[in-house]
Amino acid sequence: MEFELTASMMCANYGNLEQEIRDLEEGGIDSFHIDIMDGRYVPNFAMSLNDMRYIAGATEKPLDVHLMIEHPNNRIRLFLESLRKGDTIYIHPEAEYHPSTTLQYIIDAGMIPGIAVNPGTSVETVMEMLRIVKKILIMSVNPGNAGQMYLPYVGKKITKLLSLKEEMHFEIYWDGACSADKILEFAPKGVKGFVLGTTLLFGRGRPYGETLQAIRDLKF
What we know:
By secondary structure, the chain is of the alpha/beta class. It contains eight helices and eight strands. The protein has helices at 17-27, 49-58, 76-80, 99-108, 154-162, 165-168, 180-186, 208-216, and strands spanning 4-8, 31-37, 63-68, 88-91, 112-117, 135-139, 171-175, 193-196. Helix 7 links the parallel strand 7 (171-175) and strand 8. The termini are close together. The model has no long low-confidence stretch (mean pLDDT 93).
């Protein structure tokens, strides 16, 4: 079964970031997930613009940039200037007065537009944006911190989105508390990719290549 695996780089070892990138590439990671937080939209700070630029310059793999910031439209050009065509940028619709305007900037720059949907955000409130984005990042935990517990009611939201994805031409990605059992359950249903953090990938005392291969070898 084909699905994508992306590394949550806020969980990486920053004492040797270049080696982390190399090990993940050699291990077969599909892309790098970059969490940008402003301490306002979410009560935390994570990666910076310069962290994103460094990783963009150190790999040819795609970047998935998750903007957990207020009013991303005010700063979107800073991110667009540092990325390559084909990279993904997710915004949170609640963080912007006119999110479709920000998404159009992303589209015009040749990037892949996406929205991140929080656990407490209903499908109905983002319905019109589903027609213009290519990726939906489903937050299975509240945004802002790694290592949180899965919120089980998110599963019903994913089921609803899966019923719409063919008609509206988007793909669904999972972010937060991603364990092997969640991949086993939701990949066959049509979830396209999974963001891997401390639950499966980082800090496990195991080479990344072994972990990634074990995930791809799961028995569906």
